[in-house]
């Protein structure tokens, strides 16, 4: 039987969930009578918790606005949400998130968590990476399961293999084994990167397609999975070694840029890396510096990307406003020429 102090804390947790709770409802949840509920409310008021009494047929009790924040009771998934919000806020430079207040808020939450919960959340925060630049998603992405997220974080920290049940974008279900290297938050979605031990891949080699999260057994390439498509994650016996310089965020971005699409585009552009990246981010294109030629002192870059359609590229090249050479495909040359003709005809109108 719960002790009275435990019931008082349970009452506070019920009131913190929001809305007005009737006496009958509270009595039923606490396993006491209405008079005892009233005594528990008096205990909270004595502790300066602002509990309001609502009269009438649908009356009861609710939390009011007080001069200080009442004690908070967070479940494991709620604590996870708060800590991740603070971490993401620091990354995005949100006001207050990166300040002393944000740091002390995070420390207070960690300090009062049960030891096993604090350990799991610490593992997640230690294994988490963000892509750069950080941009909010245009459409809210599916939220990954908190238990899956925490299990994968523990696997990353302790270098343990993990078994995944995964559903790809075509609806095909499979069970995979993964050596998880890191968890990456990218534009509203969550990914886990690593290697499939069944393919004989050396850690840190190969690319995967993070747009689909599909792994192709036998290729020996690295693996990237979308967390919201993982329905179950279970740790397996054993351990593995990962390259010390492995960068999960870089692997994710490289996978996006190398994803299989209809057209393979190769350009040479006379520009700085920053100028190209302003229009073609790392998720879209790979950029390589070329050795300068004797007759031209300016830096040329090789820009490689894959695209399902080409019609969006001419406006991008026009906005880049730097000298470029199209190595392939020839269809892009025709599109750029047609785009330039349209611009010229519009400019000549009076």
Description:
The protein has helices spanning 4-16, 23-30, 34-46, 76-92, 100-112, 115-127, 146-158, 248-257, 273-277, 313-320, 330-347, and strands spanning 51-54, 60-63, 128-130, 162-167, 173-186, 189-195, 222-226, 230-235, 263-270, 285-289, 300-307, 324-328. With 350 residues, it is an alpha+beta fold. The strands form 3 sheets. Strands 3, 4, 5, 6, 7 and 8 form a 6-stranded mixed sheet that branches. Strands 10-11-9-12 form a 4-stranded antiparallel sheet. A two-stranded antiparallel ribbon has the order 1-2. Helix 2 (23-30) crosses helix 3 and helix 4 (76-92) packs antiparallel against helix 5 (100-112). The chain is elongated, with a radius of gyration of 28 Å. The termini are far apart. Residues 134-138 and 200-220 have low confidence and may be disordered.
What secondary-structure arrangement, pairings included, does this model have?
Blueprint: H1 4-16, H2 23-30, H3 34-46, E1 51-54, E2 60-63, H4 76-92, H5 100-112, H6 115-127, E3 128-130, H7 146-158, E4 162-167, E5 173-186, E6 189-195, E7 222-226, E8 230-235, H8 248-257, E9 263-270, H9 273-277, E10 285-289, E11 300-307, H10 313-320, E12 324-328, H11 330-347
Parallel strand pairs: 3-5
Antiparallel strand pairs: 1-2, 4-5, 4-8, 5-6, 6-7, 9-11, 9-12, 10-11
Helix pairs in contact: 1-3, 2-3, 4-5, 6-7, 10-11
